[in-house]
Every structure is written in C-alpha cells, then in structure tokens.
Amino acid sequence: MSEPRIPLSVPHLAGNERSYLQECVDTNFVSSVGPFVPRFEAEFAARVGSPFGVACASGTAAIHVALQVAGVGAGDEVWVSDFTFIATVNPITYLGARPVLVDADPATWNMDAALVCEELRRRQRAGRPLPKALLPAHVLGLPTDLAPLMEVCQECGVTLVEDAAEALGAGFTAGPLAGRQVGTVGLLGCFSFNGNKIITTGGGGMMVTADAALARRAKHLTTQARRPGPEYWHDEVGYNYRLTNLAAALGVAQLEQLDAFLAAKRAIARRYDEALGAVPGVSLPPRPTWAAPSMWLYSILIDPTRAAVDRRRALEILDRHGIQARPVWAPAHLMPFYRDAERLGGGVGERLFEQGLSLPCSVGLRPAEQAEVIDVLMAALQGEVV
Ligand SMILES: Cc1ncc(COP(=O)(O)O)c(C=O)c1O
Fold first, then answer.
1. Atom nearest to 61 CA in ligand 1
2. How many helices, marked H, and strands, marked E, lie in the chain?
3. Which residues contact 152 (CB under 8 A, 6 or more apart)?
4. How far is 345 from 331, CA to CA, in rounded Å?
C-alpha cells in the first residue's frame, strides 16, 4: 500500500507542543520525573470531571492497572466488550482472569446493556458466581448505554471499569448520567493518547478515579511499587508504566486544544452524515438521544445486499485513490487465543466487522479533501466505475 494522500486519523500539533517540549529540553526534565506529569494528570482529570488522574505509559497499561486495583486477579471473571480493539480484553488475561465476551448492541455498536442486565440478574437469582468487574469499551467515540449497567453493577456488587480509550470528550446528555463524561461513571476509567487518538502524547494513557486510595495504589503500581525513601524497597510486584515528562508536555498542549478538536471531529461527522445519509445500503454511526459522541473515528456500515460494493471493495477503491480507510475491528472471539472464551450473545460484532468502514477524519482534514473522499466513496457505493 502506498503512503496515503488523505490519511485516516493523524495528530494535529498546532498549539504549544513545541514550546512545552523545548521547556523539557531546556530544564533537562525529559524522563519520568518533571512538572508536566503531575500537571497533565491534574488538568486531564479536571477536564473530564474526575478528582484524580494517574498518567500511564499507554492506554493498555492504564486498563491493566485499573483492573488490578479493582481487585481483579487469577481465576476471576471479567465481562468485557467483544467488539473492541484487542487492548480492552488482553489486560484481563495478563492478570490470569477470564474474559467473558459480551456482544454489541446494534443500536449503539457498544456492549449490549440488556444482555448484561438480564444475565447478571439471572445468575444472582440462581446464586451463581458473578463477575469481579464489567469492562465496557466506548468504541469509536460513541458512549455505551451506561445508566442500566451502572444500576445493575450496584445491585449485584460488580465493579464497573470503563475503557474510554477512544472516547475522550464524549458524554451523556439525558437520563441519570446527564452532564457526566465517559470514563467518570465507573469506579475507574481509562484513556489512550496513542497517535491516532483525539489527543496524543506520542504514546500514553491515563486512569481516572474519584477514589483517592485507588489512585495512590495505581500510581504505586505504575512506578515499580517502590516505597518512598532513598532505598530501593518495593512492597509488591509493580510495573514501569510511567509516562515521561516529554510525553506529558505534549499531553498538556494537546489538552488545551481538545474543545477545538472535538468541534472539528463533529463538523467532519456532520458533513459525512449529510452526504451519506440517504445512500442505499449505508448506515451512519449511531446517535442515541441520550449521548454526545466525540465522533473520534467516523465509521459507517455498508450492507452489500443494498450497495453496489461491500466494504472490502470500497476499501480497495479508496486506497487506489490515495485515501486511507480501515475496517473496524474483528470481534475478540475471532482471535485464536479467545476462540474458547465464554460469550454472551453473538452475531452483531461479526456483522459490524463485515460491514464497518472507518473514513478519514483527522482534525486537520480539509473540506476539499473530505469532498474528495465523499465523491470517490459515493461513486463506489453506486457502482460507477472509479
Ligand atoms: C478501545 C481501546 N482500548 C485500549 C486501547 C489501548 O491504548 P494504547 O494503544 O494507548 O495502549 C486502545 C487504543 O489503542 C483502544 O482503541
């Protein structure tokens, strides 16, 4: 594949990135100690509406540590989204726990809340063991229907941990969670600052929580579980999951631009919606009335029985025109190492994978570039030779 002319989702470094990085170099704080790390933690937590933030080396590390401080250990069950990037599920396995893969709701593309509520209550009534934690991922910047999940978790004593890696800035607009942002509803919430995310630190993550003791323990685990003092005493097996001051400097600069980034993503989504909304065989991303998605990665479904092409062919055509699109993820249960995992529901994740196509939506995407993407895609969908 040649280098795309119009990439899928690339960083937008238009603010104070250069001057904050320069400050790190000038002060010699380039590694894991330095003022940008606590500043990024505090400013990020305040921005999402959570009391504490713990910076991590990646979103995957944040999920790993969050599950561990939530008490997940060997032999425990964690119910997790099946239709998600694999990094949601793998940390469960790192801890020796067992993922139960929950299918998606076709109305949100996220964890099917009705399936979870029904099965949890059935198990509780039958006196059967319950999962230690529930780990829904807010995929593509679309909020999961968390209100019923929060309620059932409280009822059954299950810890709710959110994978908000893809959904920074998304929130709830109606119902019991109105005004809350994703990542702050569960006991712990996790975010990623990988290069393709809405804000980036090059690579990095953040765990947020309202629980001071859990935040302290998470910080301890991410810093090799070293006790304070000059000597190297470690009170448990920890990790080197620290974020560097350089990365945090980028994070602070990026966070300053988050509102503008969200506005850009939503404007791009509106233009795609208007252009593609009436095309036979195309389903637009879900827009539940109770949520404000961040529209991080704009994705559509192409029904090959109604459109002239399937998503594989559409992908090839876009690629030939220098336009980078991408299939959405294969559900985790299709990976050989999760083939035998227990599952709740089934069928929806596969259909999303077969039909889902993510389209270019970088913050810096120009209207003329987006118009070109739309023209090529429309021609493909309508069977015109392109
Ligand atoms: C849903 C989801 N969870 C977790 C991660 C892991 O984040 P990272 O790549 O920063 O480890 C990502 C992104 O990469 C993701 O999309």
1. 11
2. 12, 14
3. 116, 117, 120, 121, 158
4. 12
Same domain, 97 and 238: yes
Query: Which pLDDT does position 3 carry in this prediction?
Result: 80
| pLDDT attached to residue 58 | 98
**Residue that the structure tokens 């995992």 belong to:** 341
- Does the structure show a pLDDT above 70 at 2? no
pLDDT tens track for 41-87: 999 999 999 999 999 999 999 999 999 999 999 999 999 999 999 99
Q: Say whether pTM exceeds 0.85.
A: yes
- 7 inside domain: no
CA-proximal residue: ligand 1, atom 12 (nearest):
165
Residue 12 is assigned to a structural domain of this protein: no
Instruction: List, edge to edge, every strand of the sheet that includes 299-302.
Output: 282-283, 299-302, 356-358, 326-327
Which of ligand 1's atoms lies nearest the C-alpha of 84? 1
Mark whether 290 and 245 lie in a shared domain: no
Do 46 and 193 fall into the same domain? Answer: yes
Shared domain check, 194 and 310:
no
**Measured from the CB, is residue 358 less than 6 Å from ligand 1?**
no
Residue at a domain's end among 206, 221, 255: 255
Residue 386, pLDDT above cutoff 70: no
Boundary residue ending a domain (235, 255, 275)? 255
Instruction: Give domain status of residue 351, yes or no.
Output: yes
Domain hosting residue 293, numbered range: 259-381
Residue-wise pLDDT for 102-123, tens only, equals 999 999 999 999 999 999 999 9
